[in-house]
Amino acid sequence: MSTNLTTESDIVLIGAGIMSATLGLLLKELNPKYSIEIIERLDRAAAESSDAWNNAGTGHSAFCELNYTPDKDGTIDTSKALKICEAFEESRQFWSYLVEKKVLNSPKTFINSVPHMSFVWGEQDVDYLKRRHQALTQFPLFEEMKYSEDYKQIEEWAPLIMRDRRMSQKVAATYMDVGTDVNFGSLTRMMIKHQISQPGVRVTFNTDVYDLIRQEDGRWKVCIKDLKTGKKKTIITKFVFIGAGGGSILLLEKSGIPEGKGYGGFPVSGQWLVCKNKELVAQHNAKVYGKASVGAPPMSVPHIDTRYIDGQKALLFGPYAGFSTKFLKTGSYCDLFKSLNFGNLGPMLGAGMSNIDLTKYLIGEVLKSEDKRVEALKDYLPDAKKDEWFLETAGQRVQVIKKNKEGKGVLEFGTEVISSADGSLSALLGASPGASTTVNIMITLLEKCFPEEFKSAAWQNKFREMIPSFGKSLNQHPELLKELRAKTSQTLELAH
């Protein structure tokens, strides 16, 4: 028989992924007196979207991701790339601060130096990449980017992608030596482990949040259930953050806040090809991104990717997108149907009708045979052999669907924070670039949800201590950018 206990906490964070881990650390640094509860449905931290095998991209900094620099009528739009790169620099500074404070130990367990490359072929795409390079290198954040159409130079950067390639094929690549690989699973677990040791912080695993009820006094009643014992409990709190990955949209709907009305989610699953030939793994050291297929979501941009997972160097290709009605890898096939309501049904149907290319792409990916997957791999590794690779299931992502200004349903491929008008509840929806820009996302959230504290001298000074570039654009302060990149590289043990 279940019992219902009631406790209180200043802050409740739902989900023990990179988002909650970062927000919890920031809040505790800003105000050590806060009491914080972190609730996780699974039996460990970072087991869903933040896990290394589930994370479609690591170390996103816009150095190599071509979907962040769209070609608009002959002009390369650099705005998103600049924003993401600035945000990633903030993440590096915060992690560096945590290493210096001994919150994070042994940086190589979560971050390693891995060059970032873009690689294309064919006249049209080579022309695009050349113009992209010209557009980006005008900015200090990207001025170190190299460009080449020379086979030998590209072979020096990434020998496997040029091996057995036809010399008649026109190719081009860009190269950023300051790129990194980040294991967000490892990083998150270290963050959570530290928080467990802090006074006033409690992390509860194997626990489901089944309801969110706003009280008359403005506080929230967070209803939770122990999945092992069935015992129920209620936490009364002033602030709730929903950082439950794909599951966030279902909890946002339970909250009933007007700001969450009309939002829907479109789930996209994925798979990797993983190399089991250790000699090949050792020969490649880069993240090499290409151009996405027509209709492909950002998480499905093809890349041949050096990763460091559980202390071992790995080589992955993909991800191959697919469709599932689950909102989480460990979720239910009923998730999509549970999320449908009168408020979002219109936008969902409208988004579906206007994204026929995506539907066709996903159907094609689901039906793709093993030989077809290897064929796609051979675009990047011409001499790839099927028996040297195996298929691994990646994570589940839920892309945001919402109404635009005209009231039509649109599919969004970024991340979005939805907050109640009084700032007492906030939820993170979406996928890419997500984890790499977490620090920037959480600072924006704090400004919205803790406006008075955010403006205080104490918080402003602490932000500048944790993130030295806080309040400044590194693009407009090239000397500061150079100084901070050098400092964080040294602290994070990144040898370039």
UniProtKB/TrEMBL annotation:
Keyword Cell inner membrane attached: no
Protein name (database record): Probable malate:quinone oxidoreductase
Pfam families listed in its UniProt record: Mqo
MF (Gene Ontology): L-malate dehydrogenase (quinone) activity
Cofactor(s) the record lists: FAD
Enzyme class, UniProt record, top EC level: oxidoreductase
Gene3D superfamilies tied to this protein: D-Amino Acid Oxidase, subunit A, domain 2, FAD/NAD(P)-binding domain
Source species, domain of life: Bacteria
Pathway where this protein functions: Carbohydrate metabolism; tricarboxylic acid cycle; oxaloacetate from (S)-malate (quinone route): step 1/1
Family: Belongs to the MQO family.
Oxidoreductase recorded as keyword: yes
EC number: 1.1.5.4
Entry keywords, A to Z: FAD, Flavoprotein, Oxidoreductase, Tricarboxylic acid cycle
Chemical reaction(s) catalysed: (S)-malate + a quinone = a quinol + oxaloacetate
PANTHER family for this protein: L-2-HYDROXYGLUTARATE DEHYDROGENASE, MITOCHONDRIAL (PTHR43104:SF2)
Protein's gene: mqo
